[in-house]
Amino acid sequence: MNQTRMTIQGDKFLINGELTYSEIDECPYRGLLMNARFIQGIYDDRTGRERYNRFGKIFDPDVNTDELIQSLVEWYKAGLRAFTVGVQGGGPCYTIPLESIDNNPYGHDGNHLDEAYLKRLSRLIDAADRVGMVVIVSLFYGVQSRYLTDDDAVELATANICRWLKEKGYTNVIIEIANEHNIKAYGCHKVLSQENGILRLMDIARKESGGLPVGCSGTGGYYSERIAQASDVILIHGNAQSRNLLYNLIKKAKLVKPARPIVVNEDSQALSQMKVTFQNRVSWGYYNNMTKQEPPTDWGITKGEDAFFAMRMEEYLTGKESGIPFEEQFYLQGLEPGMAFEGKRFIRLASLYPEQIDYVNFYRNGQLYEQAYDDPFLINYIENWWQGPVTGIVSGEEWKAVVYLRDGKSIEKTVIIE
Predict the structure, then answer these.
(1) Is residue 1 part of a domain?
(2) In the predicted model, is pLDDT for residue 1 greater than 90?
């Protein structure tokens, strides 16, 4: 055990005494920790698992964890060195009302850690350790925090899970106190929703874990100087941010002295955001609602957005372009067999190089249905991580995306619904 010992040197990460990516010749981004939001890695729902039997799969929490474990080698080869998993999971935001889920392994008093969750988390961290990856363990998630009766329960839950991490002897873990602590769902707990409370929980986590690095995130664009100053790793979110707003957020975090690592551990599938973080030597976190947060998840590098992210990450790290043919650099996503839920589909145009796209026209049975102008190119765009569904799609329909590039060229992608 402990094949992966993560340490911090200034604003850089080391694995077993070497800067990350040292194995890549002339990599200009050594010391970063490219990551992805795999928040549902130990997910369960006490209200019932049957509604997660979809996308051609039967949901089983242990199988879900095991399949994530099986995918880690593939992701490591592409350049991923960390992922975020939630003790209380995250939101299957597109399909299941968040308030209807019970995914709290702490008990109401914070003193009853669910052994099944701990076993899954242990298997997952152990597997990451074998592969050479770091796990960002996120302790609390918005609406799930309401199951803890009061602030004392939250503090006890923090102490207990961090004490467990210490007893396991993990050396490849970063602790995230809460996922986006400033959202309204945490309002029932001052210790989770207010800066002073987060600072107290960070102290508890650091002490009870035996000194594991600690941070806490806020919503996209949110920044707390006090929390950043108290963090071993500054965790920020880039979702709903333009590239310039993300840059502004990074500038704030870089003012913290002494310097420490800055990790975006949630953004979107907008691959153009990566350029901002790489140029500023900040680690980026891929977040895909549909392919990686809707149980039962296919944890592999799936066709389209996942594959394009893996290719771009590898290109940045190695300096070598993927070399895939131009026609294969675009994919009309969300129309795959089995990917409908309750008649809803989430359609988008995935691209390896979204920066080269001017806009996209979507056609349904030959009629213009929607236009998209921003990366990622989503039908019913809300924010770069969020879109509305398309309903009423039936077998035999033709969907087409006409992609207009900034150099004046265009390309079409067509799907006939099975």
Answers:
(1) no
(2) no
